[in-house]
Specification:
The complex is a heterodimer of chains A (205) and B (295). Chain A is of the alpha+beta class. In chain A, 59% of the residues lie in helices and 17% in strands. Chain A has a 5-stranded antiparallel sheet. Chain B has 295 residues and is mostly helical. Classes of the chains: A alpha+beta (205), B mainly alpha (295).
Chain lengths: 205, 295
């Protein structure tokens, strides 16, 4: 009976914990989201077979709320961010977000039972900027690290960059963005992103 | 292998002459961009016409467990070279782990088809001669796209040239007494390329989607990846002068708490800052970077 009661208390604690994502430590948040997403992908044959609508919906529901796309876009733009008008900035964020969501949802269908482990925190509790490290393990190949660069916001921790195997998403886009702005301007870059998104849309529904 | 190199070089030269691509993004790390872009295009063509279809066929025909066995077989043959490079970089513990890995997988793992060493807490490592040179202080050298092999640098390309002379399936050792040595060697080399390409299909599909300009995207990813590899996945934060910090909502060059921070083993490589071709490309056969060139 005592054990049952204990179990009940734990379950309650877990429930309330999940309900307030903004109070989760960054590692716990990453672990929770990762587990949630994997649990869905593992069960959903449509996503495994590459159903884009379903995987995009999954990403938008589970993953998107934990990203700060404005900061992500600003970082990828570098010095050019300040040269853009607020309207241009808004358009950039929208297009960049669409592109990243599409790319990420495609990656989901490639998931094949790899084990994803979130490493214990290195940051101090008072920190407002942390890197949460995780490792994807798969027999036969070297483990691949996924690092989440996160910042503390009033409504919880938000990811503003992701590095896979040491390759930062934001940094990788920086060259391309800088080139586009240099050659065709901010509006040209927005157009190029929108065009890319349109292509992806028509290509595979 | 020699013939393949020559063929590839000839093709690249032809492409360079025909292409004369316009430079769209001057990057101090990439002084030979027109030539590199031409080689990139050439590789792309070869990939579209030959490698990719072969890899897709390979993936279509063989069930996943078989493909994993093949991959393990080739990966296992790389482990002695990886162990040697660990040693050359002064990492004795890792060198021993990789040597045992090879022994365990070759025997109990039946010629390397099963990777049992990972479960025995001897994880696969990624080392190559380019990384060793970086640890010894050799500069990244200009970015160099190699025919067929893809993104590299002068230093890393030199590393590959050395490695290709000792890497087993590409260069069967003299003491191995087999009939039709050349035929075996060529078949194994081709199979290795095809299976490696097959493993990268998902990654390249992703790249296709994600990139506006694939050339710039791959180049940048390569620089980052190599830097990461040279520091064994734990590079020190970039100096604040780096682009990351000097704009709007705060860059992360300021090294957020918990960011990886570690002194490189023994020698501080003069250079480190580089990265890999295709994300998560297990095919760590290329190499490194240069802080002085970094932006």
């Amino acid at each position: 009976m005592k054990r049952l009661l204990e179990g009940f208390v734990w379950a309650l604690a877990a429930l309330t914990g999940a309900a307030t994502a903004q109070e989760l430590a960054p590692e716990a948040l990453v672990r929770m989201v990762t587990q949630d997403v994997i649990a869905v992908v593992k069960q959903d044959r449509d996503i495994q077979a590459g159903d884009r609508k379903k995987s995009i919906a999954l990403v938008e529901e589970k993953v998107l709320p934990h990203f700060n796309f404005t900061r992500m876009t600003a970082l990828a733009m570098g010095v050019n961010w300040r040269k853009a008008t607020p309207e241009q900035q808004q358009a950039l964020v929208t297009e960049f977000r669409t592109l990243l969501v599409r790319t990420y949802s495609t990656a989901l269908s490639a998931y094949r039972n790899q084990v994803i482990e979130v490493l214990p925190p290195r940051a101090k509790p008072a920190d407002t900027e942390v890197v949460v490290r995780s490792v994807v393990k798969q027999s036969g190949t070297e483990p691949v690290t996924i690092d989440y660069f996160m910042e503390k916001n009033p409504d919880g921790w938000k990811v503003y960059d992701v590095a896979v195997a040491g390759v930062s998403l934001v940094t990788t886009y920086r060259d391309t963005f800088a080139n586009e702005v240099r050659n065709v301007g901010v509006d040209g870059l927005i157009k190029a992103l929108a065009e890319k998104n349109r292509q992806l849309e028509t290509k595979r529904g | 292998m020699g013939r393949l190199w020559r063929l590839a070089a000839a093709g690249a030269a032809a492409a360079a002459l025909a292409g004369c691509a316009t430079v769209r993004s001057p990057d101090p790390r990439d002084p030979w961009e027109p030539m590199n872009r031409a080689t990139f295009e050439f590789n792309d063509g070869v990939d579209r016409v030959v490698l990719r279809p072969l890899a897709e066929g390979y993936r279509f025909v063989l069930p996943e467990p078989v493909r994993i066995g093949v991959r393990n077989f080739f990966e296992n043959l790389r482990d002695p070279w990886i162990a040697l490079n660990q040693l050359l970089q002064g990492k004795v513990e890792e060198a021993l782990s990789d040597a045992w890995r090879f022994i365990a997988n070759t025997t109990f793992g039946i010629g390397g088809i099963f990777d049992i060493a990972t479960d025995m807490r001897m994880p696969k490592h990624n080392e190559d001669f380019g990384q060793t040179l970086a640890v010894w202080g050799v500069d990244f050298g200009p970015y160099l796209v190699l025919p067929i092999l893809g993104p590299s640098s002068v230093r890393d390309g030199a590393g590959i040239a050395v490695a290709s002379q000792v890497y087993l399936p590409w260069q069967l050792p003299k003491w191995l007494d087999v009939d039709h040595r050349v035929a075996w060697q060529n078949s194994l080399t081709v199979l290795d390329f095809v299976q490696t390409r097959a493993n990268l299909l998902d990654a390249t599909d992703l790249l296709e989607q994600a990139a506006l300009d694939r050339y710039a995207f791959v180049r940048n990813a390569y620089f980052q990846r190599r830097r990461n590899l040279i520091y064994d996945g734990d590079p020190p934060p970039l100096p604040p002068s780096d682009a990351r910090s000097d704009f709007a909502p705060g860059g992360h060059a300021t090294s957020p708490a918990g960011a990886p921070r570690r002194e490189p083993h023994s020698v501080e490589p003069k250079v480190p800052t580089n990265y890999a071709a295709v994300l998560a490309a297990g095919a760590g056969r290329s190499a490194a970077a240069d802080r002085s060139l970094e932006r």
